[in-house]
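Quick one:
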Amino acid sequence: KLYAVLSILAINYALWTRPALLYFNMLLALIIIFALIFKKIDFKLGILYLCVYLAMFGGWCIRNAHYHHVTFETMYMPLRLKDSFDFYAPITYQIVNKIPNSTENDLKVKKIFNKMLYDKYPNFDELEIHEQYAAKGDIGRGYIKQHIGAYILLNFKGLLTEMIAPGLTFINEFKINSLFKRAIAFFAAGMLAILNLIYAISFIFNIKKLKFINIAIFLLTAYLMASTAVLGYSRFRLAFYAIETVGALSSLALFKKFK
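Output:
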């Protein structure tokens, strides 16, 4: 039961950190409801998961309603449309046009996309909020489709950043000594490198011994990494660090000498 409770907290903490897990947790919640109905799992554990999940899901709903004026019915998808316009397409544009990454250049590129938006939707300011998100998604996703190769490259670079970069961007947000920041960043990078190495070796060498749970954790980790790779921002790693650690340890335990 202890492992079950820890798993419940870990999976919902990941949802709280990054909403990419939203649909996965919805599916898991549905499975648990059916398992409770047919008495396949402990009643208390099932109720605990559903309560924690609803609290985390409700937190995202409140946050999005407050910051983005998004309703419960349109909570997730419109924000992905908005992000394609605000982040993914502009960064792809910078790669296509070989524009160096800087605050000044970021603002210039955003102005270019705003011009595209108002040229196609001159009455944009008069649209309802969900219509504005749809319009932004049309421009953002349209540009990405035209330059899909650059977008794939962007995701690949972001994935590498998530896997091996020291995460200075995130750590720089804290007001502490610069030398101490770098020490923390490179310590974190070293720990991450060791974790990735342990996971890779133990997973590959025990591939014939893998159980369903090992494969499920691996696929979940891969999904979380891929779904947040486009920006490669270190904050996004938090959604899968705990799960990746569990996966590495569970694969490592398959070696006979660790049993």
